[in-house]
Design goal:
- The complex is a heterotrimer of chains A (122), B (291) and C (286).
- Chain B is of the alpha/beta class and 291 residues long.
- Chain B folds into 2 domains: 214 residues, Rossmann fold (3-Layer(aba) Sandwich); 58 residues, Alpha-Beta Plaits.
- Helices cover 34% and strands 25% of the residues of chain B.
- Chain B has 9 helices and 13 strands.
- Chain C has 286 residues and is of the alpha/beta class.
- Chain C folds into 2 domains: 221 residues, P-loop containing nucleotide triphosphate hydrolases (Rossmann fold, 3-Layer(aba) Sandwich), CATH 3.40.50.300; 46 residues, Alpha-Beta Plaits.
- In chain C, α5 packs parallel to α6.
- Classes of the chains: A alpha/beta (122), B alpha/beta (291), C alpha/beta (286).
- The interface between B and C is large, with 56 and 54 residues.
């Protein structure tokens, strides 16, 4: 089972990034092999629709679980379609949240904020 | 750190005048101007240092290389934004171009390419004591939620230890407002007692409700229409919105602003009223808000 | 003759000026292009309202034809498309309606459908024809609505048209002033007002439009906006004093020129000044 987390730095000790769509990296952690992979988030530079593109990246990398502090509606729609379960992070560090998730201590995230659109941001 | 966002449904209600008074009263060490279309806060807050400037890139824009162009007209025919015109050579109107890339893709000779375009500038004034983040969009690049997000991010990069950050928000209800709202602890809406002011207030309250952000209301220039002021107050009561007080119209306020002062720097009626609004707002933000 | 009224920020009196100019002109057209927060209709309270929806074209997928090549997903610069579990998802409010995905789909699996983003209303108030553009909440771009509002109002030389622009200097404002013969910049007498006036001043210069300024809410003492106009050699069309009575009429959404002779005089003379300026421009340019 693979867990995806938006992170500020390429390290297991890194803080979780507060923005899902515009996080610089994603940590993909494999619970079974305990291996970590860091992905660059190509959506970070998007003017609009960053959440959608980031969610696509997570899905393409076969994650089953996402741990994030918050999430936009559009990204949530993509992740739901991909049957990825979304949990809310409760502490700062990525590692602590993985441990909390494995211990069954993270709540499901079920409130999603409206998108920022960014339509006319040209 | 608690973040207080000051908003209004429309410009011209006195949002920045009130924000600058709040900054002065609280000695806030962190503040930001998220009204990136028409930033004004820097005009009234004294900055000792030069800002650190960063270019802000919006959507890329198409450019046509006239040396490669064979004038096949495909780009012009396929552009949905009427941004390509011919006047001897094929040209892109950067104000109309939305950077969709259709022209680049249909060009048979690779004469069209999307180039990064500067859409504005971020400015960060920071020293050991305080930090002020602001930005200005370039003409024709309106309404950017992403830039607002960047402005707010910049306050956090400067490690100033403070309990309170004050953010002057963008007017309207569009995406910059939503970006301003994200992550704040409380919103203070500055309303005006006019028919259109009431309709604007209702719209902004609806937007804030989507985020579940605690919202309080104050009325500026209340004495320009006492009837409408009463209407707004009863609207707040009905909606369960905390009411922070009334501020009178005051020609001294205009004089203070034109001298580069805030309205609490001088002894005037509007300044006294803002002080009361400020005290009530702080009480709500810190004491009754809990964690 | 098309006259656009603009300001760097809301609340300066843009609607006051455009509404009262339209009302003081015998037969005229008033067009509210401030589609995010149209307020002009609150003043005119137009009758015999006809409505027309405005839509944009967005993609629709035929799943039987889609091969999952993702060319459309990769092409879309706005990230309005996602491909998940053998299914294409379209995010309608993120779409800019550029048509690229449809054009480049090798399987012809994408076609277009109409999506309503707002409406245009036409009504009458005495002899003023009132057009209002309304953008639905949550929709991002009002430009298609402005295009519709202005396309149906091709200038008739004998009829005056007043365009109440959105505030600021964004693309939506540029679209609103594109075909204007003259621009009126409305400014407040504060240093904020000057900063905002400078923005629209740059805009009308880039578009090479003839223009003049209305100084609103003038008080006793120094007026930084006036100073700016004098420095930049901007024609001051009128100084409207700060006036409680006018403020109350305006805040109650009353049209001042229909209520009080004093304001009728102010706006009639403003109208004459503007007409003279436009006439001067057309003769000196021909």
């Amino acid at each position: 089972m693979k867990i995806a987390i938006p992170v500020d730095e390429k390290s297991l000790q890194s803080n979780v990034c507060v923005s899902f769509g515009r996080t610089p990296y994603f940590l993909i952690y494999d619970i079974d092999t305990k291996k970590s992979v860091f992905l660059d988030n190509s959506a970070a530079a998007s003017t609009g629709g960053a959440g959608i593109k980031a969610a696509q990246t997570i899905a393409d990398n076969k994650a089953n679980i996402l741990l994030t502090p918050r999430l936009g509606e559009n990204a949530a729609d993509v992740l739901k379609a991909a049957e990825i379960k979304i949990y809310k992070t409760t502490t700062a560090s990525a590692k602590d949240n993985i441990d909390a998730f494995i211990a069954g201590k993270l709540p499901l995230l079920n409130e999603f904020h409206a998108g920022f659109h960014g339509h006319r941001g040209n | 750190m608690k973040q207080l966002l000051i908003l209004s449904g429309k410009g011209g209600t006195g949002k920045t005048t009130i924000a600058s008074a709040f900054i002065n009263l609280s000695k806030a060490k962190a503040y930001a101007d998220c009204d990136v279309d028409a930033p004004n806060l820097h005009l009234i807050t004294e900055q000792s240092s030069e800002p650190r400037k960063t270019d802000y890139y919006g959507l890329p824009k198409a450019e046509i290389n006239p040396e490669l162009c064979i004038e096949c007209d495909r780009c012009r025919q396929n552009c949905r934004f009427d941004s390509i015109s011919v006047d001897k050579i094929y040209k892109v109107d950067p104000f109309a171009c939305e950077g969709c890339g259709v022209c680049e893709a249909v060009c048979p000779v690779d004469a069209v390419s999307l180039k990064p375009a500067v859409a504005g500038e971020l400015m960060l004034y920071a020293n050991e004591r305080e930090v002020f983040s602001t930005a200005q969009l370039k003409m024709g690049s309106g309404n950017s939620g992403k830039l607002v997000t960047e402005v707010k991010k910049e306050i956090k990069t400067a490690m100033v230890d403070t309990e309170l950050a004050i953010i002057d928000g963008s007017p309207g209800i569009g995406c910059p407002v939503i970006a301003s709202l994200s992550g704040v602890d409380m919103v203070l809406v500055v309303a005006e007692p006019s028919i259109s002011g009431i309709s604007d207030l209702e719209r902004i309250i609806k937007t804030a409700a989507i985020f579940g952000t605690r919202t309080a209301v104050c009325i500026n220039k209340f004495d320009t229409n006492v009837g409408n002021t009463e209407k707004i107050e009863s609207f707040c009561k009905k909606q369960g919105l905390a009411f922070m007080g009334r501020i009178p119209f005051d020609s001294d306020a205009v004089k203070a602003i034109n001298n580069g002062q805030t309205i609490v720097d001088i002894d005037c009626a509007s300044g006294a009223a803002v002080k009361a609004v400020y005290n009530k707002t702080m009480k709500l933000l810190f004491e009754e808000g809990g964690g | 003759m098309r006259i656009a009224v603009l300001s760097g920020k809301g609340g300066t009196g843009k609607t006051l000026v455009s509404v009262n100019l339209a009302a003081v002109t015998k037969t005229s057209t008033y067009i509210d292009c401030d589609v995010e927060e149209p307020n002009g209709y609150l003043f005119f309270k137009p009758e015999n309202i006809q409505e027309e929806e405005v839509s944009i074209r967005i993609p629709k997928v035929d799943e039987k034809l889609c091969s999952g090549c993702r060319k459309c997903v990769d092409f879309c610069k706005f990230n309005a498309l996602a491909y998940i579990k053998d299914k294409l998802i379209v995010f309608e409010e993120v779409c800019h309606s550029c048509g690229g995905c449809i054009m480049f789909c090798p399987e012809k699996a994408l076609t277009e459908k109409e999506k309503v983003i707002g409406k245009v209303q036409k009504g009458t108030s005495n002899q003023v024809t009132v057009y209002t553009g309304i953008l639905n909440t949550g929709e991002a771009s009002g430009i298609p609505i402005i295009k519709k509002l202005l396309a149906r109002n091709k200038p008739e030389s004998d009829k005056q048209t007043f365009i109440d622009c959105p505030p600021g200097s964004a693309c939506i404002v540029m679209e609103s002033i594109k075909d204007a013969d003259y621009c009126i910049l409305v400014a407040e007498p504060t240093i904020f007002g000057v900063h905002n006036l400078a923005m629209v001043y740059e805009l009308v210069k880039v578009f090479n439009k003839p223009f003049g300024a209305v100084l609103n809410k003038c008080l006793e003492g120094e007026n930084p906006a006036e100073k700016f106009c004098l420095e930049k050699n901007i024609k001051i069309l009128v100084r409207i004093p700060f006036d409680n009575e006018l403020g109350i009429l305006n805040s109650n959404a009353e049209i001042a020129v229909r209520k009080n002779e004093k304001y009728r005089t102010i706006f009639s003379s403003l109208l004459e000044t503007v007409k003279k300026e436009v006439h001067h421009e057309t003769t000196s340019n021909s």
